[in-house]
Structure formats: C-alpha cells, structure tokens
Amino acid sequence: MKEANTAIKESSADQPSLQVLTFLLDHEIYGTDISQIQEVLEYIKVTPVPRTPDFMLGVINLRGHVVPVVDLRRQFEMEVSEPTVDTCIVIVEIMVDDESTSMGLLADGVKEVVELEARSITPAPRIGSRIDTKFISGMCEHEDSLIIILNLSKIFSSDEISEVMDSVSSKAAKSIETDSDDSE
Question: Can you list the domains of the chain with their CATH numbers?
Fold first, then answer.
C-alpha cells in the first residue's frame, strides 16, 4: 500500500482528483483516502481488552473476525466524549509488518465521500514543535470547510500497532478457547 502523501502527489500527475471519506472528530472534519476504507458501522458495544494502550477502546466481532477499535480522540489528545446516535466505527485497512489488517476508528460521525482536486490539497503547515503534523497528508478547502486529510499509517507508531494487534490476538485466542470449552 502506498503512503497517502505519495498517493496525493501521484494523483496530481495521473488523475485530477482524490476520493476521501470525511468524518467528524470534535466538530472538525477529517478525511482519509477512500481506498483504505472497508466499511462504516453504526456504533456497537466495544469489548474492552485489559492492558492495552489508552487509545484502544477494545475489540468488536465483525462477521467472526476480532477487530481492534481505537479512539482517535484519545490518540489526538482531544476531550473524550460519550457515543451519540451519530457515532460510528470506520473500518479501515492498514499495513502492519507488511501485512494488511483491519482496524476500527471511532468517529463522532461520517459526513460523505468527496472528490478533491489534487492540486487543491496543500501540505500540513509547520506550526512548531507543539503540534505533531506527521500523520497529516494534507489539507483542503471544500465547500467552505477545511478537511484535514489523515495518513493512517503514521497515526500510530509501529510499536503501538504491534501492541494492539498482540492484544487482539490474545483476545481472539481466549475467545476461541472459551468457544471450544462451551461446546464440550
């Protein structure tokens, strides 16, 4: 999978636009390349997993697969809020150790898929050392709103993703053991 920055740069040469799924976090509009989106789910109960990073809410069962769900508000050090009727889980595909894996991102709500002209996407501004912009692929003005385009592969460090995936693997193994114990 290509880095989102690379995809944006290449799209300006090859294509006039980039399709982005937009969603809300703390009244701000964020987006990510539609090619990384698997599906959007209504908010469902997330099962907590002990001894996981603060940003990991837990796991959900998605058609027999255990999928970790992370709270971007926590990762971005925003105020945490209670789920509402608009809260949803965006299932994305990310690369972990050269392997594609699914992960859920908790969002305040999904807006729409928009088509952005590649030339209208600007790099994240350098605001100083207080704000980390490494996970931002770019920004774009769209219909009087600013969309912050996220680079999903840079939101979490490889150590954080590995820790989440290890927790999920152990939760899945325990779930399988419990299922086999119940069937005896």
Answer: 4-183 (2.40.50.180)
